[in-house]
Inverse folding.
């Protein structure tokens, strides 16, 4: 869901929901599968908030919405959209959240290193969520919200997130097809590595302007995610640093074990890139990946040290 996009406006007399008296509704910010988000002013505290109203009042949707609110409150991280209140008004559930005035990442145009800098906190936020046993499952540009003054990012919309602790067996398919991991498309059990893949898709899309896995139909897209290799980023956008290209392609490895071991490891790679220090990144060739799929006991192959001049 895209929240905070200044281009999405609606005259006050056309606003689709009624809010509690303490909120002065101003305009529609965005809409998604489960709800609609409106900009409102908290009359008591004198601040702007984003009010997310649940569209469907059925018990299943209400419980899912309530779980999202509780997850957001539980996570409480500087790079996760803050939740202020969850309640029901006029028979409709709503969630009051922090309002970010810079729109979503989907509408932003950031230079490669500025993008990495903006997403650095989101990487930490995902690591924090994973440490609590929560996998987001719907990382995409629309769910990354920005502050206008500094492009600092926050992660939002935990509507399809799952708790992995104590869970066994396959997971119900949920998320956005274009950004799903291979294991997610198959309905298999997912873990932190799935979010790494989706973050890699988001980086690829923002750096090149195109999705790494495309198709004319949903079936084509899912097949591409499971089987096709994306085009090298620098073939589409030469300004992408070589080291950043390697980082993104490693996130997009088909096998979870071939991606970064954790968000902390990805964060470290981001830090090395931003500080322009030499970095050792394990990136296997396509042939090596095929060989490792046949023989999982084979030795890891490491690239030589990458030097600062290789970052341009």
């Amino acid at each position: 869901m895209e929240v905070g996009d200044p281009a999405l406006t609606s005259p006050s007399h056309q606003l689709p929901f009624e809010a509690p008296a303490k909120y002065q509704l101003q305009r529609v910010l965005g809409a998604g599968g489960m709800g609609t988000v409106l900009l409102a002013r908290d009359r008591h505290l004198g601040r702007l908030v984003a009010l997310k109203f649940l569209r469907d009042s059925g018990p299943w949707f209400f419980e899912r919405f309530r779980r999202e609110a509780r997850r957001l409150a539980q996570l409480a991280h500087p790079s996760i959209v803050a939740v202020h209140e969850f309640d029901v008004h006029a028979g409709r559930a709503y969630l009051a959240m922090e309002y970010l005035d810079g729109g979503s990442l989907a509408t932003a145009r950031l230079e490669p290193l500025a993008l990495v800098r903006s997403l650095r906190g989101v990487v930490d936020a995902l690591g924090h969520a994973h440490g609590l046993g929560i996998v987001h499952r719907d990382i995409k540009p629309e769910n990354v919200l920005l502050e206008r003054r500094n492009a600092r990012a926050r992660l939002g919309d935990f509507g399809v997130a799952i708790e992995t602790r104590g869970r066994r067996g396959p997971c119900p398919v949920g998320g956005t097809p274009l950004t799903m991991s291979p294991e997610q498309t198959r309905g298999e059990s997912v873990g932190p590595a799935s979010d790494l893949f989706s973050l890699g898709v988001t980086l690829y899309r923002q750096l090149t302007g195109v999705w790494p896995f495309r198709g004319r139909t949903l079936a084509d897209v899912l097949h591409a995610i499971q089987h096709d290799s994306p085009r090298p980023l620098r073939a589409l956008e030469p300004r992408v640093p070589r080291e950043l290209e390697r980082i993104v392609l490693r996130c997009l490895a088909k096998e979870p074990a071939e991606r970064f071991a954790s968000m902390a490891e990805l964060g470290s790679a981001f830090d090395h890139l931003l500080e322009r220090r030499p970095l050792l990144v394990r990136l296997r060739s396509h042939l090596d990946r095929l060989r490792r799929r046949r023989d999982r006991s084979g030795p890891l192959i490491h690239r030589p040290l990458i030097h600062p001049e290789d970052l341009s």
The first strand starts at residue 23 and ends at 31. The mean pLDDT is 84. The domain at 105-307 is CATH 1.10.510.10 (Transferase(Phosphotransferase); domain 1). The chain has nine helices and nine strands.
